[in-house]
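Re: Re: ligand-bound prediction request (bumping)

Still looking for help on this. To restate: I need the protein modeled with guanosine-5'-diphosphate bound, output as structure tokens. Inputs repeated here so nobody has to scroll up.
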Amino acid sequence: MSDTIAAIATGGVVAAIGILRVSGDDTLTIIDKVFRPASGRPMSSYPNRQLVYGAMLDSDGSELDLCLCTISRAPGSYTGETTAELQCHGSPTVLRQGLEALFAAGARQAKAGEFSKRAFLNGRMDLTQSEAVIDIIHAETAEAAKNAVGQLSGAILHKTDAIYASLVEICSHYHAVLDYPDEDIEDFRLRDYEATLDDAIEQLTRLQNSFDRGRIMTEGVKAAIIGKPNAGKSSLLNALLGYERAIVTDIAGTTRDTIEERVRLGGVLIRLTDTAGLRSTDDTVEKLGVDRALDAARAADLVIAVFDGSAALTEEDRETIRAAAGAGKSIAVINKSDRSLVVDPAEFSGSFSRVCTLSAREQTGLDALEQAVAELFPTPNAPVGEILTNARQADAVGRALESLRAARDAMVMGVTPDAVLTEAEEAMAALGELTGKTVREDVTNRIFSRFCVGK
Ligand code: GDP
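Reply:
Sorry for the wait, this slipped through. Here it is.
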């Protein structure tokens, strides 16, 4: 028995269409009160998934909107429960009134993520698929969206389920031999199982290694622009923000002067942090001092170091080069290419991952920067959907790997069978956590609280 939940599933803005969603045991009773098909027959008499035209009614029976309704009976729905959707005109006021009518008829407001949580609890999706739903909604690049869709189709689930099944096989054999020594059960064939464990370890290692790229795919590359005053940092920032292919959002940070700009370069989401100093035009002295440059470089995945190519390198430039060395990846931007260059780009190639020459002011050569970013953060050749994007999932994979390695070592060294069994079972528990087979309730609640209401 589940109570019946309802929510506005679409955004709270004026749009062509807005959707109200209902799920739970009383869905049909409630929808018969709130929706009257034009045919005069009750909605509950219609088959699953048929779109039916009619009127959405207020609790006093007056018409709130003319709309379409569809029902899906349990268990063949998103949540696994009987659900209904009302496709109304996209007026936030109408949707709000429709929702109130659903409440008056017996539904209650759904909590954030509650539809998807029910889908998980009813076995319609595993946890990696549920998390893929959040990732699709929040995807900021085409690549991230594609990978999330792959996970929704069960890419990670299928991979880990196969490993889980092979561990079940190993563990059951060990248990049988240990627990029923008198039965005539085939004796240990340890070396046979070693190959199975090796294969599982290899697959999970590949999955774990994809996490770095997965994190970048969803969270973006944390980048800092550094360089001496007047090198052209602000101009570059502005050029990037105004770049036709750039998507820009300002996100106010936790401190007053931390601004993060997000741009998409070469298909990669770049989070330019600490740009507050770059944007304030009255602050010409401070800009990005050496210490701040060092800190920014250390904290960044990518440093974009800007040099004035029209003037000889100075000691400050050399400090910038040293600071950039602290970052994982770095691009030297030789700016002001519209003037005659006096610095030789080749001089930087030893200290930087990539070097590009451009003019921030004239906005020429920016495609070289775009290409450098794309080369430094290439799309991994993992099949779509098999890139780990989620820290919780990566942690579970890491623990499974640790146990699998320990199990393999115990097996090879001929340690007592119990040791192998214990480790293999630990690995199974970690994999179970990944897909939600054994996940604890508080973890589940935490995961679904990240969803929006109506999802
Ligand atoms: P910042 O101090 O590093 O942020 O440098 P700014 O972006 O404020 O630029 C310093 C000066 O260099 C300004 O007068 C800019 O107009 C000029 N500047 C920036 N980029 C270019 C460029 O590509 N070509 C030329 N000729 N001047 C530039």
